[in-house]
Amino acid sequence: MVVDCHDPEQLAAFGCAVLGFMVIDRSEGKVEIGFWVPTVEEVRARQLAPTMVFIGVLEGKTVKNRLHLDVSPIGGTTDDEVDRLVGLGAAKVDVGQGPGRSWVVMAGPEGNESDVPRTG
Q: Which of 68-72, 94-98, 102-106 has the lowest mean pLDDT?
């Protein structure tokens, strides 16, 4: 998955903290994160887990993302996960989802949305 952003280093660090990933590659204006370092053999065998690549661009975000991640609380409540994400630099946002929904919409440091599904 590729995410356009102003500060690839900042968003990669945020993504690593949220997802438990690590930086697996970086070059000027680009940082790739994942939970594994792909080998040539694994790529050729198509034994791939997704990675995220943050690429620096000049233009800013103008509308709601058409693709977003759900960050499911594991071993805790939705409120615990929302608090964790806020502590990492995210914020609750209203994108017109209305009250009583089964998820909480969050925005990362550059405004990209993610959902936290409600538990229980």
A: 94-98
What pLDDT digit, counting tens, does each position of 91-103 carry? Answer: 999 887 777 788 8
Helix (H) or strand (E) holding 102: none
DSSP 33-101: EESS---HHHHHTT-----EEEEE-SSPP-S--SS-EE---SSS-HHHHHHHHHHTT-EE--SS--TT-
Residue 59 in tokens? 């233009």
Of 18, 33, 56, which marks where a domain is finished?
Answer: 56
* Residues 49-67, mean pLDDT to the nearest whole number: 83
Q: In what order do the strands lie in the sheet with 91-92?
A: 69-70, 113-117, 103-107, 91-92
Residues constituting the chain: 120
Structural domain includes residue 92? yes
36 and 75 share one domain:
no
Residue type, 16: C
Q: Range of 37's domain?
A: 2-56
If you compute the radius of gyration of the chain from its CA atoms, what whole number of angstroms results? 15
